[in-house]
From TrEMBL:
A Pfam family it matches: LRR_1
Location of this chain's protein in the cell: Membrane
PANTHER family membership: LEUCINE-RICH REPEAT-CONTAINING PROTEIN DDB_G0281931-RELATED, PROTEIN KINASE DOMAIN-CONTAINING PROTEIN
Organism: Brassica cretica (Mustard)
Listed name of the protein: Leucine-rich repeat-containing N-terminal plant-type domain-containing protein
Topology class, membrane: Single-pass type I membrane protein
SUPFAM superfamilies per the UniProt record, alphabetical: L domain-like (SSF52058)
Amino acid sequence: MLNCGKTSTEWPISGGNQFSGTIPGELGNLTKLVKLHLASNRFTGSLPITLARLVNLERLWISDNKFSGTIPAYIGKWSRLRKLSLHASGLKGPFPDAVACLENLIDL
């Protein structure tokens, strides 16, 4: 349950809900977010540039969706990132070079 009176570090969506549509840019305002699990839904469109502000993110799961576009370069700036799941996400292209510098990344 989301409690807007407290600071939450985990997004209250879990995978497999068949949510659809685009990811709202306002999600980037949750700058204390540590985990974001959006896998196994029907999300479309590109990842909003505002997600670049999620610098505390440690885990991102966006696999099994219908995104379009390329893997955003800003992922390479998430220095705390430990787990990144992008398979079957719909995103195309090579990983940004900066991803190789993510020293905490242990699961790709």
